[in-house]
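Ticket #466: bound-state structure for flavin-adenine dinucleotide.
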Amino acid sequence: MAKRVVIVGGGIAGIYVLRSLLARKSDIDEEMDFTVLKREKSGWVSTCGLPFALRGWYEIERTEINKPQFFLDQGVDFRTETEVAKLNLDESSLVLKTGEELKYDYLVIATGRKQEVKETALEGVYTFNNEEDAEKIEATLNREEVENAYIRGRGIIGLQAAAAFSTRGLKTTVHGGPPSLLPSNLDPDMADMVKERMEKDGIRFILDKREITAIKGHEGRVKSVVIGGKEGEKEEIPADIVIIGKWMLPEVDLAWEAGVDIGESGGIVTDRAMHVKEGRGHITNVYAVGDCTEVVDAITHRPRLNQLASTAVTQATVIADNILSDISEQPGLYSPCEYCFGPTAADVGGVLIGSVGVTSEAASRAGIKTISGRATKLTKARYFPGATPLTLKLIFDAYTKKLIGAQMIGEFTVAERVNELGLAIRAGITAEEMRSMERCYDPSLALLVDVTIDAATAALGITPVY
Ligand SMILES: Cc1cc2nc3c(=O)[nH]c(=O)nc-3n(C[C@H](O)[C@H](O)[C@H](O)COP(=O)(O)OP(=O)(O)OC[C@H]3O[C@@H](n4cnc5c(N)ncnc54)[C@H](O)[C@@H]3O)c2cc1C
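RESOLUTION: The complex was predicted; output attached.
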C-alpha cells in the first residue's frame, strides 16, 4: 500500500519537503501519497519576494510561484484554508478543525511563525509574515490619507518594510531595542553604517528600551503609537500604518500539545535527521522543518532560532532523504542536517547586507574570545566605472585564529561573498591563511588586493597596504 506523507503547513518549508519528494519519488520503487494542509488560500508563495512587491518592483500576485491547482494536478491532496486542530502521535493521525481525522505514515510539522497581532483591533496595524499581510499593507499604502508609518522591530523584515514605505513617500519611524539595528547579523559598528545610510533616505530610528504603551485610532483606523510609560519618556508618534515586526515566535502549539519537546529558544527540538523529540527518544516518523524549529549553531553549539527560507530548504532536503531512505529501506539515501552557519543576505532599500557565522556579541555570550578586522574597499579597480564601496568585518577565534564570523555592507555582490566566507568558516580557514590567499583579479570585476585580505590583515594587527 502507498505510504502517506502528511505535511502540516504550506509555507516554504512544507512546500520544499513536498517538492523534494515529488521530484524524487521515482528514485524508489514504493508508492507514496501526499497531503498538504495550510491556512492560506495560496499554493507556493515566495515570502522573501514580498518586501520588493511593496517597494513597487512587481505585483504581490507574482510571488505566488505555483497555484494550488499545480499540486492538485500532480495528485497531491493539497488543502488550503484548512486548520489542523490536533496531532495524535501515538495513533499516527491528526484531526482537522472540521473533525475529520487523517492517518499518516510520515508526518511533517512545518507550522512556521505565529501570525497574529493581538495588540489592537484597529485597522492599519499588521504583522508582515505572508502574502495576506502584504495585501493588507498594500491596500493601506494605497489610501490617500496614509502619510506616516511606524515599524516595531529592528530586524531585516522591519528594515525592508521601512525601505518600502520610505520609497513610497511615507514619513517612516523604525523603533526597536538598544543599542543597534540587526543584532542577529551585525555588530553595532557595522549596524550604525546601515542606520546612517537609511537615515539619509529620511527614515527615523528610535533604538531604546521604551515599549508601546498605547495604539490610538480614529473611526477604527490607527492614527498614532505611544511609546514609553513614564512622564518625560512618553512620545506619541503619528502612524497611519503600523507594522509589528518584533521577533516572530515559532508556531509550536500543535506540537507542544502533542507532547513534542520545545527547546529553550521556543522552537521544536529535532535530531540531525529532523525527527522531533519526545522525552528521551525521537519519533522516527515525525519530522519538523522551517521557522517552527530550533537549530544548533555551528560556532557556539547552542540551540537558537534561524528563521530563514535558506535554512528551511536545507532541512527539507534532509527530511526528503530520510523519508525516502526509510520507505525504501535504503540506508544510503539517509542524510543528517548540517549545524547552522546562518548565511544571510538582504537588500534594505539599496543597502546590501550580508552575514554568516557569529557576531562578536554572540561569540562573547558563548564565552569565545575574538579578534576582528574591518576594511572598506571598492568592488572593482578605482578607475573603473561602476566601482562601489564594500565594508567587510571578519571575526576570528582569538585562540585558533579560525574565521568564525563575517559581516558586510555594500551596494553590489554581497551574496557570493557570504557563501564564500561561509565555506571558509566551515573549512576552518585562519586569519593568516586568508591574508596570504591568492585571489583572482580583473579591473572590471575585482580589485588587485581584495577587501577580504585587508580585513584579515587588520584582524592580525598588521597595517594593510592601501
Ligand atoms: C517579508 C519576509 C521576507 C523574508 N525574506 C527572506 C529572505 O530574503 N531570505 C530568507 O532566507 N528568508 C527570508 N524570510 C524568512 C522566510 O520567509 C521564512 O523563513 C520561511 O518563509 C519560513 O517558512 P515556513 O514554511 O517555515 O513558515 P511559514 O511561512 O510561516 O508557513 C507556515 C505554514 O504553516 C501553516 N500552519 C500553521 N499552523 C497551522 C495549523 N494549525 N493548521 C494548518 N496550517 C497551519 C500556515 O498556514 C503556513 O502555511 C522572509 C520572511 C518574511 C516574512
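RESOLUTION NOTES: The mean pLDDT is 95.
TICKET STATUS: resolved
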